[in-house]
Specification:
- By secondary structure, the chain is mainly α.
- It has one domain: A middle domain of Talin 1 (Up-down Bundle).
- The chain is built from 14 helices and 4 strands.
- α2 packs antiparallel against α6.
- It is globular.
Length: about 325
């Protein structure tokens, strides 16, 4: 395999970009959470909106970078592949380790919204391209969804609110600032964290896209397949780590809500912004249109009866999800590379 323009191996460039993206997402997430807390937002609202968006920042950085460089297929493949990975593999693996109880908000609001966004993206893609007007439409839908979500969160039970506070309320950590942070107003320090996170995410995304593109060219693999596999797994690392840690700690309600919320925001906000920022329409390949987007919609639809049954995802259902993802991944490697 040839080296990239920087003289480094493409895999090294990709992995370096991934590390920088994850670090940037963590800084961005901390800054955003603490700013939201300083503005008096409730922990449950922070968890369902700021945290869900924060863990999706790698996807946004990659999407914007790919769109600007004319690799829109990679960004769409990243969103489709990431959402399939979130539900089938990450959620399935979590349930395989320990049966996963589902929240009432997930059944009433989040899963139906995930189904609606997946179907909306599929319908918009039927003409083979995504235009700037459609991107703006996705952003409008994101605004409406967020308003409805905040209203619904006010009706959540006390136990859920306490778990959100325990998992995502940054007050305790914010009060232990040292060094330079101790001499700056909290709002200024957290704005600096936010800015640093955005800068690192953008830099890391540029490296990831460059490395992934070099890998694709070397092996004759399309940008779409790279987005569905390597980039999707890489940019969904924050969701994977959050969910698995929460599973091992047996504090999973918030993490799973964040997982589903990230999938919704991936389409409405991340892809919406990517389409708007692209210099022209994003063209969608036939494989993504007729295989991956329908599969992402099917996975979302299946979640509704699974979540409703006994108000939990059983270990057996989790294993079926993981097996289905491995079969999907195997089909990508065998027939589309």
């Amino acid at each position: 395999m040839t080296l990239t323009a920087s003289g480094l191996h493409p895999f090294a460039v990709f992995l370096g970009g991934l590390v920088i993206v994850v670090l940037g997402a963590e800084l961005l997430l901390r800054g955003a959470m603490r700013l939201a807390n300083l503005m008096g937002l409730r922990p449950v609202t922070i968890g369902l909106t700021v945290v869900a968006l924060g863990t999706s920042m790698p996807e946004l950085a990659v999407g914007l970078t790919a769109a600007q460089s004319g690799q829109g297929a990679l960004s769409v493949g990243n969103i489709a592949g990431g959402n399939i990975l979130n539900i089938l593999f990450i959620l399935g693996l979590s349930a395989s380790i320990r049966a996963l109880p589902t929240r009432s908000m997930s059944v009433r609001v989040e899963v139906p919204a995930m189904i609606a966004t997946a179907l909306l993206l599929l319908i918009m893609s039927l003409d083979g391209r995504l235009t700037r007007g459609e991107g703006l439409g996705l952003l409008v839908c994101a605004t409406v969804y967020t308003v409805l979500l905040v209203r619904a969160s006010r009706r959540e039970g006390a136990l859920v609110r306490e778990e959100f506070a325990r998992e995502f309320n940054p007050t305790e950590r914010a009060d232990t600032r040292g060094g330079l942070a101790a001499h700056l107003p909290p709002w200024l320090w957290n704005c600096l964290l936010l800015a640093a996170g955005i800068a690192l995410a953008a830099l890391g995304a540029d490296l990831m896209v460059a490395g992934a593109s070099a890998i694709a060219r070397a092996f004759g693999v399309s940008d779409a397949v790279i987005g569905l596999t390597i980039v999707a797994v890489g940019t969904n690392t924050p969701e994977m780590v959050t969910t698995l840690i929460a599973t091992l700690r047996n504090d999973r309600d918030v993490a799973i809500g964040n997982l589903i919320g990230s999938g919704i925001y991936n389409v409405l906000v991340i892809l919406g912004l990517t389409i708007v920022a692209a210099p022209g329409p994003i063209h969608i390949g036939r494989d993504i249109l007729w295989i991956d987007l329908p599969l992402a919609a099917l996975v979302a639809i299946i979640c509704l009866p699974v979540f409703k049954s006994d108000r939990r995802v059983s270990r057996r259902e989790g294993m079926v999800f993981v097996t289905a993802y491995l079969a999907y991944l195997g089909s990508l490697l065998l027939w589309r590379i």
